[in-house]
């Protein structure tokens, strides 16, 4: 397997710099990960990490507009916010890479804090909320599921926020505080990947980021979620075309040893058309038109999710009981035949295909560094390979307990 | 101390490094396009069968004929096929489009021989089990219902229907009740008769002569019927359409017209004009409707090319009560583009942005082979990208006014709104 080479060095202000050389194309990626996501938000001011992702494009101390100078040199960029991180990335022709350093470092130095930018982006985020969460069938499902599964931990709200009023009421002072609390060099990881040498990447990092002062501020950490000890259930009726079931189970955090067997368990149950749930419930019983299981893969203990859409006329309680029966069978009878070898091969294949793109390698390096173990980018497949059938069954009896489960029935109105 | 008030030196993007796209023929006359790339031990193989909406004896039947291929052969049932693909970490993507059916295999190099041989079985020896067909039909009906509940999906379909006409292969909408009427015999008959028309093959990745030899061997034994000689009917454009939905908080807008194809002498200029209007994040529509007015999360203008016809489409989802304001602003932006030449600064930015974007579209082998395929299926050379890259610099501000006036003509623009 091809190894990902990298050079890692911290600047004096604490910025973690990782360089990955690949000269097979003529572009460079700058991936800048800030260690702040929805999990770091104040419960009364949710949606801020994501609002920030928008504000970061609205001008910085010396640059009025982020996109325009980047487009001028042939660069493209985007960003995303998750419950754990906020991640910005630029792809740029290697001749013009310095422009990306200039732009990214200036917005780390300081935003412009232009009131008009706040007003416009507030409206854009509210529209995004409507487009993604209100105007789509099942769009609000995570607004319901998260508070059901999490009672203490900040994973109880999605990145858009608990309530859109938090965005409506955000003040410039809130924005400034959040910026200087989280957007500091020592709270960030910069990956420079592609058609650039380590030497040049380090010189440019030092030149543009080296002079930014670090202020040690208090990073807000979420409360840990106590163990769930009762089955939770909710029924939602809304304008949706068909019935749906969502089941969440608490599972191990991303860096736990148990993570690998639990991830493979979710694949065996519900990844692809040969998976147990799909075969039994879509093909054999015809209760569902589609069903799958997957994990959220968070830095704090995340969720394993089983979700499916029901065929017309099928009773949701019966369908849910059938899912639980399949889970119990898996625990009682163990993992059959080639199932474990299969999901390991799938994992290897997904990994190798994703590595084709330099940007994915850059993001992988940044995320592994964020998790505190950068070598995961090269070792993780070995950890998956080592998992035994007994460990997967162990994972099933540990995670897929009824009292560890929250079930949401999403039904069409009347 | 570094001077942050000025941009670092700007280098014009002068050259494009296109990967090598090799064309040959295997098994007599099956065209094979190939891009080799040894860095990652993976291979994709894409078989494109020219059976599209025009070749359908029954509306919506292509979907089932294509998707049923992997639901059983004389040796393996649906579960065994799915298990085998999954076991070898492969992925098989069968996607019907209005022009053709694309069958794409993603494989690790080490498992390629096994998965290739499975693909060959699926193509030539599909058994179309009735039980699987019944399940698939039920799932398809559910999917259509779910899709039709989304304003943006409905708007996209209705817009194409408006431009091309409801019976046109590019404008038809397949409804749940039509799907329900399709029978197992009809699907099987379509497969046996002439669904498998002579394909084109596209391969990319860590491919050696060994893999090419295997592909040649598998395809040599296959039978395909010849190309179809039917002619694409003329489109029949209808009037604007407004579908009101009381419960919606947003309205999905699609607007534009039928436009010129990629071979037309004005195409490169039109591509630049479209880009400035709504092709990227710094476009005028995005700057005005999203960044200035905050009416939407995103707005794009695109030129979409089918084999026989092309169309221009502006698409956005906006705040429902601001729908008319948004349409007014879009039309304003078009008028501006027709009458006032862009500043040299705006044009410089746009051109370098476009060239940078083109250069980076070949960063991954998966994207590159798709770009080469799209052109090749249209009888166009991969050099299109070099030609476009070089043509961008020649486009003047006046050119943009002139193509915008000619092709974004207000009289021919159709508007479809849903929500």
Give an account of the 3D structure.
- The complex is a heterodimer of chains A (414) and B (419).
- Chain A has 414 residues and is of the alpha+beta class.
- Chain A has helices at residues 48-55, 67-72, 97-109, 115-134, 141-149, 165-168, 172-182, 198-209, 259-270, 276-284, 316-333, 339-354, 358-371, 376-386, 389-399, and strands at 7-10, 16-21, 27-34, 76-81, 86-93, 188-194, 232-238, 244-250, 288-295, 303-310, 405-412.
- Chain A contains 15 helices and eleven strands.
- In chain A, the strands form two sheets. A six-stranded mixed β-sheet of chain A has the order 1-2-6-3-5-4, sandwiched between helices. Chain A has a five-stranded mixed β-sheet with strand order 7-11-8-10-9, sandwiched between helices.
- With 419 residues, chain B is of the alpha+beta class.
- Chain B contains 15 helices and eleven strands.
- Chain B has helices spanning 61-67, 78-87, 112-124, 130-148, 151-164, 176-181, 184-195, 209-220, 267-279, 284-292, 323-339, 344-360, 365-377, 384-392, 397-407, and strands spanning 22-26, 30-36, 42-49, 91-96, 101-108, 200-205, 241-243, 250-259, 296-305, 310-319, 414-418.
- In chain B, the strands form two sheets. In chain B, strands 1-2-6-3-5-4 form a six-stranded mixed β-sheet, sandwiched between helices. A five-stranded mixed β-sheet of chain B has the order 7-11-8-10-9, sandwiched between helices.
- Chains A and B meet through helix 2, strand 5, helix 3, helix 4 and helix 10 of A and helix 2, strand 5, helix 4, helix 10 and strand 10 of B.
* Whole-number mean pLDDT of chain A: 95
Task: Report the principal-axis shape of chain B.
Answer: globular
Overall mean pLDDT score of chain B?
94
* N- to C-terminal distance of chain A: 55 Å
User: From the structure provided, what is the oligomeric state, counting identical versus distinct chains?
Assistant: heterodimer
């Amino acid at each position: 397997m091809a190894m990902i080479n990298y050079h890692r060095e911290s600047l004096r202000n604490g910025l973690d710099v990782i360089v990955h050389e690949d000269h097979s194309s003529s572009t460079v990626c700058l991936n800048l990960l800030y260690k702040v996501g929805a999990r770091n938000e104040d419960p009364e001011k949710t949606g801020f990490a994501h609002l920030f992702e928008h504000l970061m494009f609205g001008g910085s101390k010396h640059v009025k507009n982020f996109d325009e100078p980047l487009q001028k040199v042939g660069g493209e960029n985007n960003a995303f916010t998750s419950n754990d991180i906020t991640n910005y990335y630029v792809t740029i022709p290697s001749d013009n890479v310095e422009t990306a350093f200039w732009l990214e470092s200036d917005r780390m130095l300081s935003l412009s804090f232009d009131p008009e930018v706040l007003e416009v982006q507030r409206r854009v985020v509210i529209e995004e909320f409507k487009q993604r969460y209100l105007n789509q069938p099942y769009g609000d499902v995570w607004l319901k599921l998260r508070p059901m599964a999490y009672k203490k931990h900040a994973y109880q709200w999605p990145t858009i926020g608990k309530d859109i009023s938090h965005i409506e009421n955000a003040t410039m002072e809130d924005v400034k505080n959040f910026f200087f609390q989280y957007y500091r060099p020592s709270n960030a990881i910069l990956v420079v990947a592609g058609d650039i040498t380590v030497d040049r990447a380090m010189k440019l990092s030092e030149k543009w980021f080296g002079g930014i002062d670090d202020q040690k501020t208090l990073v807000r950490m979420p409360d840990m979620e106590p163990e769930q000890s009762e089955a939770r259930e909710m029924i939602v009726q809304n304008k949706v075309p068909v019935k749906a079931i969502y089941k969440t189970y608490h599972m191990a955090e991303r860096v736990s040893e148990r993570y690998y067997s639990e991830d493979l368990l979710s694949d065996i149950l519900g990844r692809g058309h040969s998976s147990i749930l799909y075969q039994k419930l879509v093909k054999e019983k015809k209760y569902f038109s589609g069903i799958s299981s997957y994990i959220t893969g968070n830095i704090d203990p995340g969720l394993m999710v089983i979700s499916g859409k029901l065929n017309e006329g099928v009773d949701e309680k019966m369908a849910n009981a059938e899912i639980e029966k399949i889970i119990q069978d898996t625990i009682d009878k163990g993992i059959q035949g080639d199932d474990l070898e299969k999901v390991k091969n799938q994992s290897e294949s997904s990994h190798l295909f994703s590595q084709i793109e330099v940007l994915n390698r850059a993001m992988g390096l940044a995320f592994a560094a964020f998790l505190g173990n950068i070598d995961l980018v090269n070792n993780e497949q070995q950890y998956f390979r080592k998992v035994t059938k007994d460990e997967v069954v162990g994972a099933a009896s540990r995670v897929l307990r009824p009292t560890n489960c929250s079930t949401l029935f999403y039904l069409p109105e009347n | 101390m570094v001077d942050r008030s000025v941009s670092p030196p700007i280098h014009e993007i002068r050259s494009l490094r296109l990967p090598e796209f090799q064309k040959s023929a295997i098994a007599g006359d099956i065209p094979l396009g190939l891009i080799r790339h040894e860095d990652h031990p993976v291979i994709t193989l894409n078989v494109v069968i020219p059976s599209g909406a025009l070749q359908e004896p029954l509306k919506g039947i292509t979907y089932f004929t294509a998707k049923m291929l992997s639901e059983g052969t004389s040796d393996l049932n649906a579960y065994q096929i799915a298990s085998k693909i999954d076991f070898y970490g492969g992925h098989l993507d069968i996607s019907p489009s209005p022009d053709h059916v694309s069958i794409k295999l993603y494989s690790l190099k080490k498992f390629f021989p096994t998965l290739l041989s499975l693909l060959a079985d699926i193509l030539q020896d599909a058994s179309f089990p009735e039980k699987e067909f019944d399940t698939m039909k039920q799932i398809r009906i559910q999917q259509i219902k779910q899709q039709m509940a989304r304003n943006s999906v409905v708007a996209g379909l209705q817009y194409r229907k408006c431009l091309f006409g409801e019976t046109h292969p590019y404008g038809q909408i397949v409804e749940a009740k039509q799907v329900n009427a399709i029978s197992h015999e009809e699907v099987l008959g379509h497969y046996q008769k002439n669904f498998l028309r002579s394909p084109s093959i596209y391969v990319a990745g860590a491919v050696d002569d060994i893999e090419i030899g295997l592909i040649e061997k598998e395809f040599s034994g296959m039978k395909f019927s010849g190309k179809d000689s039917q002619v694409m009917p003329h489109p029949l454009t209808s009037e604007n359409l407004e579908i009101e939905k009381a419960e919606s908080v947003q309205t999905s807008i699609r607007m534009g017209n039928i436009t010129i194809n990629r071979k037309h002498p004005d195409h490169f200029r039109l591509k630049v004009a479209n880009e400035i209007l709504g092709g990227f994040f710094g476009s005028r529509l995005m700057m005005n409707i999203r960044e200035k007015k905050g009416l939407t999360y995103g707005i794009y203008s695109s030129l979409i090319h089918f084999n026989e016809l092309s169309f221009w489409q502006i698409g956005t989802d906006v705040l429902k009560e601001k729908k008319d304001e948004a349409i007014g602003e879009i039309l304003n932006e078009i008028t501006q583009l027709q009458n006032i030449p862009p500043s040299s600064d705006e044009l410089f930015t746009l051109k370098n942005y476009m060239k940078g974007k083109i250069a980076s579209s070949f960063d991954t082998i998966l994207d590159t082979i798709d770009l080469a395929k799209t052109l090749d299926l249209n009888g166009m050379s991969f050099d299109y990208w070099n030609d476009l890259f070089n043509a961008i610099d020649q486009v003047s501000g006046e050119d943009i006014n002139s193509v915008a006036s000619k092709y974004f003509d207000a009289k021919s623009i159709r508007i479809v709104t849903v929500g």
